[in-house]
Amino acid sequence: MSDFLAGLPVVSFCETDASAVEARIIADYETVAGVTLYPGDPVRLFLEGVAYVIAQQNLLIDDTAKKNLLAYSTGGYLDNLGALVDTRRLGLTPARVAIRFELGGPLEFPVTVPAGIRVTADALTFWAAEAECVIPAGALSGDVSCVCLIPGSSGNGLLPGQINRLVDPLPYVVRVANTAMSLGGSDDEDDARFRERVRLSPERFSTAGPAGAWLYWAMSAHQDIADVAVITPAPGEVDIRPLMRGGQIPSLELIGLVRRAVEAQPMRPLTDRWQVQPPEAVPYAVAVSFTVARSDSALAAGIEQAVRRAVDKYVSWQRAKLGRDVNPLKLASLMEQAGAKLVDVASPAFTRLEPRQVAQESSVSVIFAGVEDD
């Protein structure tokens, strides 16, 4: 949830505390009837049953009313709020990868790799060529962009060479293999990300090119885009830097998706000069050591594991957002919360980042320095 939505006050449309509802009903009855209802009184037991039903209704009323507010809305309710501002949830997208088709040797004539020809890594997930490719006479191979036939994130992460089986026979082709890792597949957009796009949606109606509009269109290009920096280095110039989920630098294909999403929109100013580029990675090393208090020595093994998880959490936090300064105090704090007594952060040093930059760890070293007195 965005900082703006997270900062809104908590709202409640009716009383949902069952004990408070019960107390109110019994007190009102006693006031009107002029009697005191003691525990076990049949009238009191009846009113307690009524209070339970009313409390359940209040919960439904409160939940239903909150679903009409962007900060609380989820699922289909959120989809309907998005429809009010012409914003739809991004659906499943298939992974893509470049497949190299190799011939047994140079030929005197061209060989056509037809669109739709399939390859696989495991005979469970299949990939199909998106367009026809012609291997020229005398050439030994040709690269084809292939799309996973099962949409979603399941097609991501196959390493170069793993997709190496030709499903549909093709004369003269003796070998196939992916030349890069398969990327780009994504599941349905989750509520948190979709909620933020719905919040940004009104920005896109402006014809003056506000940062929020550029951000909205860039975020709409792919659901794995976690953050976008919109920078104006000079008047009339816009620099767009998308960052992928998990702090990954976007591939050239995803950069192209953002470019197409931005240039296709009719609401942006024609006088703006814009460019989409990957963020600038700023490497930093993590080198820390820590001790455990002697009173906690029996728990040292568990504390060491918790501290290492805290370091992993810091690394993920550091790379999750553009322009986030490298902050060793955050690292030390997380390690201390995990149970470390004395933390020595040799690296990183505090480093201020620009909005176009993202911190990425180059190495991580965590040393348990033993036990010391409390």
Question: What's the gist of this structure?
Answer:
With 374 residues, this protein is an alpha+beta fold.
Structure in words:
The chain is extended and about 105 Å long. Helix 8 (300-319) packs antiparallel against helix 9 (328-337). The chain folds into 4 domains: 3-72, no CATH class; 96-178; 192-278, no CATH class; 281-372, no CATH class. The longest helix has 25 residues, at 42-66. 31% of the residues lie in helices and 25% in strands. The mean pLDDT is 92. With 374 residues, it is of the alpha+beta class. It has helices at 3-6, 18-33, 42-66, 75-84, 191-200, 211-219, 252-263, 300-319, 328-337, and strands at residues 96-103, 111-113, 118-120, 126-129, 133-135, 141-148, 165-166, 173-178, 225-231, 237-244, 273-276, 280-293, 342-347, 357-372. Strand 10 (237-244), helix 7 and strand 11 (273-276) form a beta-alpha-beta unit. The strands form 4 sheets. A 6-stranded antiparallel beta sheet has the order 7-3-4-6-1-8, with no helix packed on it. A 3-stranded mixed beta sheet has the order 9-10-11. Strands 13-12-14 form a 3-stranded mixed beta sheet.
List keywords for this structure.
single chain, alpha+beta, 6-stranded antiparallel beta sheet, 3-stranded mixed beta sheet, 9 helices
